[in-house]
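Hi R.,

As promised on Friday, here is the backbone we talked about, encoded as structure tokens. Could you run it through your design pipeline when you get a chance and send me back a sequence?
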């Protein structure tokens, strides 16, 4: 039975009047997939899940909940990794799902913009851009199910941040429903607008705590005519950083992705994931998967890359390399990177980190964090991988072989604290692309200055004084 603090039937009837009978779920069994996160770490309760079809319906729902004092948890594809889209256990909150708001409102290929609603699946947006001979570069593992509203609310990153930036860098305008139900229409496709505060930036990365993003004007780019993909082995992370610098200079900033992977991760992927194969015979402690985009077919990007590899081989920065010769081989190389993530669950429990440091400090971070973790937990198996090009490392640790998974996961907070201390000493961030949500809220306060905390709380109070917008998250 729901523990909504008001008459459930009255609340449900009022919400159904707004959304229609197909726009609300109230039975516990129907709510189950919406009240837990995909990792199984958080499991809440909700008074209802509502599915508005328009910005006006979102506004009416928010206005009603504001008047009733009901907390609202906006939810996209529920693919987040920090519990940001999961309600608390009180049953006194509703989940506001944007999945029915999935229209592409406008394509302006001459302005290189696409206007979309928050419930659009990321992959559908990529496809719509491609049909117009354009590129929307945000790309991540969950792109087949995640929604753009969630991507923008968490400032998602992905594999092409090095060249195109995070989600916040790909937005020109927003439409947002505020905590009192008012609609701010900032859907402007302008690259220059110097008329005051850049209000959209308040809501990008705010995880739904200041307002609900209902639509966005996204930046598009020219579709690449040439894609060059390669897998290289390097002796150590220092060599990988030097290789990245060389390639950025040699290619005129054509490097789009630069992913660092350890030998253990490659071994896990080839052991557990169908379709994963290491094309390089000689073993190596570190691998780099890299990709370059070119503006015209038949350009010299492939030749540029091979020449750079040749020089780096002579200097010992690169040990071996293979270039994809066709799209099938390209997909095989990326399957290794994707399989590395998937394979870790087959090796038992894993303590995870999503951190960033300056690119030049990545080798120092890896060395320090690995030593600390292996000293703390005998037999721990670090699997650090990620977007070396922008300094974002997913420092995951697989449990020691034979250890009880629950005993290992009980060390989560202790291990996190030590790893995050290393990150802080190197001038980094404890959340590079996953957000704060519930998982890192207290830890975030440990590293923010008093001034930053005060500013964040002031913004929250100014825009959501009753704390009804995704309460208990971020701040």
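Update: got your reply. Pasting your designed sequence below so it's all in one thread:
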């Amino acid at each position: 039975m729901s523990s909504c603090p008001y008459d459930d039937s009255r609340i449900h009837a009022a919400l159904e009047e707004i959304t229609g009978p197909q726009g609300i779920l109230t039975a516990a069994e129907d709510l189950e997939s919406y009240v837990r996160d995909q990792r199984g770490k958080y499991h809440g309760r909700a008074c209802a899940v509502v599915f508005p079809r328009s910005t006006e319906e979102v506004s009416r729902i928010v206005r009603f909940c504001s008047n009733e004092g009901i907390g609202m948890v906006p939810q996209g594809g529920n693919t987040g990794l920090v519990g940001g889209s999961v309600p608390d256990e009180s049953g006194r909150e509703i989940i506001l799902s944007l999945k029915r708001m999935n229209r592409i409102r406008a394509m302006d290929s001459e302005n290189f913009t696409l206007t979309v609603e928050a419930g659009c699946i990321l992959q559908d947006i990529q496809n719509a851009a491609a049909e117009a001979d354009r590129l929307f570069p945000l790309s991540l593992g969950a792109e087949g199910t995640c929604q753009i509203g969630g991507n923008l609310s968490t400032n998602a990153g992905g594999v092409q941040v090095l060249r195109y930036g995070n989600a916040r860098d790909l937005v020109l305008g927003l439409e947002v429903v505020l905590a009192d139900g008012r609609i701010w229409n900032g859907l402007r496709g302008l690259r220059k607008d110097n008329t005051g505060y850049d209000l959209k930036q308040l809501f990008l990365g705010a995880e739904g705590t200041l307002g609900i993003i209902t639509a966005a004007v996204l930046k598009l780019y020219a579709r690449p005519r040439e894609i060059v993909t390669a897998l290289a082995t390097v002796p150590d992370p220092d060599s990988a950083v030097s290789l990245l610098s060389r390639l950025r200079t040699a290619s005129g900033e054509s490097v789009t992705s630069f992913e660092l992977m350890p030998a253990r991760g490659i071994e896990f992927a080839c052991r557990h994931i169908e379709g994963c194969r290491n094309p390089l015979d000689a073993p190596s402690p570190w691998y780099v998967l890299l990709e370059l985009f070119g503006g015209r077919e038949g350009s010299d990007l492939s030749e540029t890359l091979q020449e750079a590899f040749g020089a780096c081989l002579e200097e010992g920065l690169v040990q071996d390399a293979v270039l994809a010769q066709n799209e099938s081989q390209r997909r095989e190389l990326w399957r290794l990177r994707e399989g590395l993530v998937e394979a870790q669950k087959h090796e038992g429990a894993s303590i995870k980190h999503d951190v960033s440091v300056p690119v030049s400090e990545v080798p120092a971070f890896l060395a320090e964090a690995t030593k600390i973790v292996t000293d703390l937990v005998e037999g721990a198996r670090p699997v650090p991988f990620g977007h070396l090009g922008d300094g974002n490392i997913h420092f995951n640790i697989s449990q020691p072989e034979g250890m009880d998974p629950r005993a290992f996961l009980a060390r989560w907070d202790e291990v996190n604290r030590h790893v995050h201390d290393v990150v802080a000493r190197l001038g980094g961030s404890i959340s590079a692309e996953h957000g704060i949500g519930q998982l890192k809220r207290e830890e975030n306060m440990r590293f923010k200055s008093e001034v930053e905390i005060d500013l964040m709380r002031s913004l929250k109070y100014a825009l959501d004084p009753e704390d009804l917008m995704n309460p208990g998250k971020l701040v």
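One thing I noticed while checking it: The mean pLDDT is 96.

Thanks again,
M.
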